[in-house]
Design goal:
Layout (H helix, E strand, L loop, with lengths): L1 E3 H6 L1 H12 L6 E5 L6 H4 L6 E4 L1 H4 L8 H14 L3 E5 L4 H10 L4 E2 L9 H7 L9
Parallel strand pairs: 1-2, 2-3, 3-4, 4-5
């Protein structure tokens, strides 16, 4: 389940309580758009997270802006030190993937791999059977 920083910070204690209850159902959590919101490192250590998602703002300029690379590297190192997976959002080029891999990020999301699609189209493109509702 993806959660945004602004959602988490609107009621941190209540959100943590709900996350812990959902965690008992094996639900995993990703903090979406990390680095663009209220980023409170104090709460980051207490949230039951599994993944940090680097915001597109830090990914899109990786090959153009000298400031973007150290910021992305810091987010990746922070995630690693907290035992969290990291996903780079907004990956649109092979060069971005190369830089991210060099920094230690190996999971990417973005148009470089495909645009959002309905489940049936995704299944067709990837040789899987269409999901059915139950």
């Amino acid at each position: 389940m993806e959660l945004t920083e602004s959602l988490l910070m609107s009621d941190p204690e209540g959100t943590i309580d709900k996350m812990l209850r959902l965690r008992q159902l094996d639900i995993r959590f990703a903090l979406d758009d990390f680095g663009t919101g209220y980023s409170s490192l104090a709460y980051l250590k207490s949230l039951p997270l599994d993944t940090l998602k680097i915001d597109i703002a830090f990914v899109k300029d990786l090959t153009l802006d000298m400031q973007a690379t150290p910021i992305a590297a810091t987010i990746i190192a922070l995630a690693e030190s907290l035992g969290l997976d990291v996903i780079a959002e907004g990956t649109e080029t092979a060069d971005q993937c190369t830089v991210l891999a060099r920094l230690g990020c190996h999971v990417y999301q973005g148009y470089y791999f495909g645009k959002p699609a309905p489940a049936a189209e995704f299944a067709r493109r990837n040789g899987a059977s269409s999901p059915t509702a139950s």
